[in-house]
Batch of 3 targets.
Target 1
Amino acid sequence: MIEVKGLTKKFAQRMIFENVNCQLVQGKSYAIIGKSGTGKTTFLNILGGLETATAGTVMVDDQPVSTKNLPQLRRDKFGFIFQNFGLVDKETVAYNLKIGLANQRLSRQEQTIAMKEVLQQLGLTNVDLKQRIFTLSGGEQQRLALARLLLKKPTIIFADEPTGSLDADNADEVTRHLLHDFGDQATIIVATHTAEVWRHCDYLIRVENCRITITENIAKGEKPA
């Protein structure tokens, strides 16, 4: 569980949000929504320890997100997915996927089996483990980033506009895998401006007028107008 207490963020004299208190529970998906410039990505980054707050605390399973604890949280609990995919472009598919297996004691053969299984799960059976990342399409690269997360098995996933650079078909495919393939094993937090993404989430986190509110997504599963 993520617990936020008294969270405030300012840039110079500009208040982004103030005195935010909320809880994000295990196994649920959350979409951070709001107009451009309201602080969606800033809030996501603070939760994931990529930015610091002006005041307040973020706790993960009763452990503060702090400089001291971040290496362990990133190793054991956190997973990230970004609009630019976050892959090592000049390296192979296998090299990138093995990053997700770094903390698992598997033989080389077991690693290969795990990588091939996750590629099949994500519809990437045409992708070879020896293939270079730059030869893949944008949709394939984002699904590969998801495959790496599935191998790592994080309990909290932070996604910043994960479909922002994809066409409609690939965006829908990535969203479906992101929000369903992890089951109830992970808390998923997505910063997005896209209805095709947030309509699949359990809760909506609205960032507006320096405030952050969380409501159940009563429109979950409905197609956007």
Target 2
Amino acid sequence: MARKVSIQPEVRKRMILKQLEKNESITIQDVARMCNVSEITARRDLDELESEGLLIRTFGGAVKSKLIPYLFSYENKEAHNREKKIEIARLAATFIKDNDILFIDCGTTVVHLAKFITGHKNLRVITNSLPVVSELVHYPNIRVSLLGGDLDHERKACYGPMTEKVMQAYKANKAFLGAAGISLKNGLSSNDEKEGSITRLMADSSEQVFVLCDSSKIEKDAFVNYAPINVVDYLITDKDISPEHLRMYRKNRINVLLTK
């Protein structure tokens, strides 16, 4: 008999909410099958999500709450811990030099980086993020390559087979990437497979990889793991990281840089 793969509760809940975002309703049996858990566990997950106001329980399952689109919206993600994200981006910008070739992904922390690089000469930026392009479009000293493909209106970014094919033609000396979660055991993770796929390609095609994320995402796993921890050269986060996590990461030879 095949052994069940354990999925962490927070990851299961994210999977449930993503499914509700698409289909409006879900049954206990759907949850049990999707998350590879018992119906008792599935029922408990739904009950906990209802207590958080994120869905409405029904007989045998649940239906979508009005909060779900807000939860997954780009604007809400960008607003969460916004001041920390700006300071993380400000610190990351100190590693950028004239003539650099940069990958910048569509993460809501990384997007702030664009504000701090406009004074550099002869920069090349390769991105799939429309907000990054919008920020840099007025600066002729920065050459911007927008990766085409299928537009995700919610994330304000391009994804898909065309994006990945074009991406493979580029190389950069530095990649600035976001993550919905990062852990020593499972590496970098995303809330969406297609987002993780593009970010992994950027990491693999760059000489140095900088991961920008606030401390709330450290030692957390999101929906899908897309890269091992050893792809990370620098982890840039805020000063609120726990001392234990800081010690663990530095012990594992991860260069952790903290905002002031």
Target 3
Amino acid sequence: MGRKIRDFVGMALACLLWSGMGSGAEFKLASVAPEGSEWMQAIRAAATEIKSQTGGRVVIKLYGGGVMGNEKQVLRKIRIGQLQGGAFTANGLVERYPDIVVYGLPLTFESLAEVEYVRQRMDPVIAKGLEEAGFVSFGMAGGGFARIFSRQPVSTTADMRGRKIWVPEGDRVSTAAMEALRLSPVVLPVTDVLTGLQTGLLDIVAAPPVGVIALQWHTRVKYMTRVPLMYTMGLMAVDAAPFSKLSPADQAVFRKVMGDVYQRLDQQTASDEDAAVKALVASGIAIVDATPEDLRAWRSAVAEANQQLGREGTYHVALRAQVDAYLREYRQAQPARAGAAGRQ
């Protein structure tokens, strides 16, 4: 009898060990990106590769299309352990890492070449800050510049007066810019914008062309104003606590595979943006420019608003100063830039 009990216990333990090896460490990641989008396809392929390279020890389960809620809700679910990470815009992580907004302060950059120059020097600083905030990241993928999309043409500040302008939920930076221009924003999470456009709750949105198409917002607007309002980017942030429990080898696989995906997506920014603009024009959306006078007024008002945010502690002024220094360095090395801002 004793031998049978020992054999039974041994078999039970073997089954438990086998089960544990098969299930792996599960990382549940969420995104508002639609199912079937290029981003979701790329991350699903990466998840398959990570599972393969780790022998099933690391399993990634993806929730796309905003089924886990907006970015604020995803962040809360990470905090309580329901999720282990997610794909975020910079604004989505500002609650945990305020300095992430420095790339996206309105009317900072005039071209993707400027962004690339600054990011080559500042991305490691941002990544380190994210790790100190408790997140592991795998690089950032540029989303291009947010542009003005509207039902009526927008070339001047007056064109926006009395219009219902979307500002993302929790986006203090965009709210400050709207206040500086004496405009009244309508605050909504990203997941509610399409409904807002469909019902007339919104007249104007600011978003990158690629995002406008992916989220189907372009079906409810007629004009795009060419001004590069703000640089947008996306990144995956994984809770450092569960990530740190992986073996060093599995961590390295996770970082390498996801890092390669984000590097590839980032390198496609310019071509993706160009293709998106062409697709928008083909769909009937007209492109307009801001008047030079209004563009100068926007830059002046928004620059002061950006500085005030720094004084209030929204981000560290020293970090923004680094961005500005690299931006000046780049611009001083370029030929005359007259009129460049409105044409990007």
